[in-house]
Amino acid sequence: MATPREETDHDFSSTNAEASFTNPTQASQLAKGDFILIKNHPCKIISKSTSKPGKHGHAKINFEALCLFTAKKYTDLHPAHATVEAPIVVRREYLLLDIEGGYLSLWDPTAGGALKDDVRMPKTDESGTRMAEMGELLGRVWGKEGEKDIMVTVLSAMGMEVVDGVKEVERG
What is the reported pLDDT for 124? Predict the structure, then answer.
């Protein structure tokens, strides 16, 4: 027979790490521009429509959203009172130091000058996508010789990262 101490001991050695990547949110609280998890893809909501409650049902919300990493469009339908998962998205700016082997070498001035070299150069072969646009812009500004630095905005969600913005800034 187990002692009371043995009955209360729990094993916390294995946990679901994905749980820390999202927050539960009521579907009706999300708006255009917010983030939602659809089919395990972190997405940015581009449109939201609400149907009126039927005779025996609840109001439903239809979300259209773009995946942050592939720009693929996803749709999802939820009751307005349902709880959905919203990915935790972090946007951070880095100074571009180099591009080598398909990866960006970045410097984070806010983290004590930490170097980051695990962000992939955006692919330019997917014409018309946001990622292709970022890759082409990055290629253009990196190839210029001048007196400007290049700042790269990186979005992080669900343990993945993508370049979301590129801008030139005066050195100083």
Answer: 67
Which residues does residue 167 pair with via DSSP β-bridges, in sequence order?
Answer: 151
Distances in whole angstroms, Cα of residue 145 to Cα of each of 148, 149, 150 = 8, 10, 11
Q: What is the pLDDT of residues 149-159, one digit of tens each?
A: 899 999 999 99
- Which residue type does 57 have? G
Asked whether the whole model's pTM tops 0.85, one would answer no
- Give 28-66 pLDDT, tens digit per residue: 999 999 999 999 999 999 999 999 887 778 899 999 999
Helix ranges (H only) for 108-172 are 130-143
Q: Per-residue pLDDT for 14 more than 50?
A: no
Buried b (16+ CB within 10 A) or exposed e, 35-67: bbbbeebbbbbeebeeeeeeeeeeebbebbbbb
For 8, list phi and psi in degrees, rounded to 5: -95, -10
CA distance 110 to 12: 34
Q: Exposed, middle or buried: residue 166 (CB in 10 Å: 0-12, 13-18, 19+)?
A: buried
Hey, what are 168's tokens? 């030139």
